[in-house]
Amino acid sequence: MLALVLAASMAATPPPPATDIGRLHWMTGCWMQVRANGRVDEQWMAPGGGVMIGMSRTVKDGKVREYEYLRIAPGADGKLSFIADPSGQPEAAFPLKEITDDSVVFEDPAHDFPQRILYKRVDANTIIARIEGQIGGLARSVDYPYTRCPAGN
Question: Which sequence spans correspond to the domains of the chain?
């Protein structure tokens, strides 16, 4: 009888909330934006264990100007957040606002700048990352059109 009660209570327990991390598999890999005086590289590991881990580096005039450690992971509420640990700044988390099979939006209206981080898949070899928000009451945005890195980079 006890076994039946235990089995019934386990069957009634809802599963943990889905994080949708697998829908972001298209971000996996090495991405680059070549500029006249340098380049921006961003790399993402495939989803694993409910988390994606990434990093970014901006090289200008032959020197690293900025770098950032990134992760997309579920928070205490089970919902995904984009967590950025940029060089010289405190870590910031942006909760998931919207996700589709080709795009994702993270948003924290209380953050200074940016308040939103967006990624959009254009095709298998192109994604656009975008940061946006307000600075001093004025709308600002920066686009990062990335192409897939050549093999070996």
Answer: 19-148
CB 87 within 8 A of CB 67: yes
Predicted pLDDT of residue 20: 86
What are the structure tokens assigned to 21, written together? 């991390």
- Confidence (pTM): 0.84
**CATH for 19-148?**
2.40.128.20
CA dihedral 125, 117, 55, 32 (to 10 degrees): 30
Read off the pLDDT of residues 30-44 as tens digits, 9 standing for 90 and up.
999 999 999 999 999
Write out the DSSP string of 2-26.
HHHHHHHHHHHSPPPPP--GGGGGG
CA 76, CA 106: separation in Å to the nearest integer?
16
The per-residue pLDDT for range 103-118, each reduced to its tens digit, is 999 999 999 999 999 9
What sign has the CA pseudo-torsion 42, 43, 47, 51?
negative
